[in-house]
Amino acid sequence: MSAPVVETHRLAKTYGLAPVLREVELRLLAGAGAFIVGGNGAGKSTLLRILAGLEAPSDGRALVFGQDTRRLGARYRRRIGVMAHQSFLYPNLTARENLEFYAELYSVADPRASAIQWLDRVGLAGVADTRVRAFSRGMEQRLSAARAMLAEPGLLLLDEPFASLDHDGAEIIEALIRGAVERGASVIATAHAVPEIAGVEFAAYEISRGRIAQQAHQEEVRRGGRLRTLLGR
Amino acid sequence: MNHSAIRNGLGYTTLALMIIALFMVFDYVPPEAEQGIAQLIFYFHVPLAWVAFASFGLVAIAGIFYLWLGDQLWDDLGYAAAETGMVFCTLMIVAGSIWAKPIWGTWWTWDSRLTTTFILWLMYGGYLMLRASADDTPQVARFAAVVGLVAALDVPIVIASVRLWRTIHPAVLVTRQGGHGLEDPRMVATLLVCLAAFTAFWAWLLMLRFTQLRARSRMGALAVRIAFARAAAADLK
Amino acid sequence: MAGDSARCSADRTLSGFAAVLRKDLRLELRSGESTLALLALSMLVLVVLVFALDAAHVRSVEVAAGALWVAMVFAGMLGANRALLAERDNGAIRGLLLSPLDPGTLYAAKLAAALIFMLIAEVGAVILMVIFFNLDFDASTARLAPILVLGAIGFSALATLLSAITGRTRSGDMLLPILAVPIFVPALIAGVKASAAALGGAPLASMGDWLRIMIAFDVLFVVAGYLLFEQVVGEN
């Protein structure tokens, strides 16, 4: 049995006196995907931030690629791609410049070519040399997805990747996620409700008031066959 | 460790040492030939300076331990040391002014010890202001630890530069801890007793403040556990 | 990812440093007038000092050196505040923290950007100082260069580290000078004394003590900043 890509043990997080995450137990194997579904304030974003290594848990542990997330070395950070509510993009740089910058940070072989390629994939080739400050929310979201995925990370942590997107935009993101999964990447994505992604089998978990409840809505994600149970309890 | 026993012990020790010290300064030690009665402030100056600097050193050391170990205890110790040190540093500055007036006729003099202590006072002030304005952020302990550490590392450079600065306009004052100017063994003895008395005083105040902060931190941790229990109880409904 | 293993980590550090610095310089140039405005503000400080110290009627290298350093510190404070400002938009700082970029390297890049800004301001300030304070452009002015560079390195190193802290607190803009100035005092004393001596015609060899103090300050704060930056820039 291969080692899990993501693992948490009794993960808990408080902000001040408010417990945001309580006793979260999660396991994700390589090449698997999961949607974590919940309402506002349920703790989805916090969980993702902890897994990305941006915040430390108040209690318990989170392991990514076998490493404690509080001490993720550069080697492992390179293998993680994150999409958050904030786009991490510089408004005064063009789309191309933003992607080239991140490609350089992630040691991508040919940053220029990579930037062009990914701008194409998210349908922003036409505005490559426009400053991001002029972008609509949907365009920024797409560019943020390109930024997260251009280094072809082994683990994708996507916080509400479909938010603010119209139908075309959502299709683009869907295609990107599909491509990543086909490549063998693991994906954890959060959402308010389980979306339909044709062609991928993701497990779905409901998070409510800081706890991961039962596997939810299995029927909704079952696609043409048995559901791969890739997540531990 | 029985905190209140230590606190009380320090309190009584301070009281005893202070009484002895006051007696020695005002009755026992002979006044210095040149400056007369006003020179006696030296026996308060030096211990106050020692305590002010030592306290800042403690702020820095507590900061290092906090950054290394992450235990809130070190942050509480650093904060207590900063507040206590600030008190003694302020006393030192005020004492310096009181001394300067009769000797120099001015309310302040830029001799190297006073100048360095004044810079230290500004650093304390900055540290405490940082604490005050960052109090609501979760990283305040980390910020304070870094600032305290960085300022403390700077202190030797401050001392060196101020000393160099003053030698260009030499100050007449030569009082240096344990250095020339203390020919009479009674002076040495008095100085040592004063040092002990003020150190005990400082330790006592530090202990008072530290136990207060510890109690507050522990209550905070307890409140978090209660919040968790409440949430768990709500689950069952 | 194929070329990844071939690049050694020093190479990666350098390219990360270069990428961040280039990005910051590009952003700085695009921000347009605000950079110029800040530089102008620093120069105005000199004007204030001319009148405040009545420099018109007296030729004093001590006064000139003092005014120069006041303007420099002012510029340094403005420059440091901006170093991390660019990362506030869209949470870009998180993008940097998530990347493989080493926090120490990020510090070095921010330090370099703040330093460049301060050096440009210094050049302007020196020119104006010579003109306003009745001095000459000669060898003594040139001898200022190493002193001012040492001062700029020290102040930028200190302020870049501190601004990562103060930028995230209430009244952070006021807090930066409150923290930075007392800590900077030794380098300030040394810098002003050395500058005045240089302007008075003394050779650099004669100010060895002051220069040593400034070098010690610089080394201390560049190293401290490099090591401690990651403690203050993250969220955990």
Structural class given helices, strands, pairing of chain A? alpha/beta
Total DSSP E strands of chain C: 0
Write down the overall geometry of chain A.
globular
Strand count, sense and closure of the main sheet of chain A?
6 strands, mixed
Proportion of residues in extended strands of chain C: under 5%
Distance between the termini of chain A: 17 Å
**CATH domain fold name of the largest domain in chain A:** Rossmann fold
Question: In CATH terms, what is the architecture of the largest domain in chain A?
Answer: 3-Layer(aba) Sandwich
Order of helices and strands of chain C: HHHHHHHHH
Q: Determine the N-to-C terminus distance of chain C.
A: 30 Å
Strand tally of chain A, please?
Answer: 10
Give the % helix of chain C: over 70%
| Shape, per Cα inertia axes of chain C | globular
Strand content of chain A: 25-35%
Secondary-structure-based class of chain C equals mainly alpha
The average pLDDT score of chain A comes to: 85
Question: Helices and strands in order, then pairings?
Answer:
The complex is a heterotrimer of chains A (233), B (237) and C (236).
Chain A: E1 6-15, E2 18-28, E3 33-37, H1 44-52, E4 59-64, E5 67-68, H2 74-77, E6 80-83, H3 95-105, H4 111-121, H5 137-149, E7 155-159, H6 167-183, E8 186-191, E9 203-208, E10 211-215, H7 218-221
Parallel strand pairs in A: 3-8, 3-9, 6-7, 7-8
Antiparallel strand pairs in A: 1-2, 1-4, 4-5, 9-10
Helix pairs in contact in A: 3-4, 5-6
Chain B: H1 3-28, H2 42-69, H3 72-104, H4 112-133, H5 140-168, H6 185-236
Chain C: H1 9-30, H2 33-52, H3 61-83, H4 92-98, H5 103-132, H6 139-142, H7 144-166, H8 172-199, H9 208-233
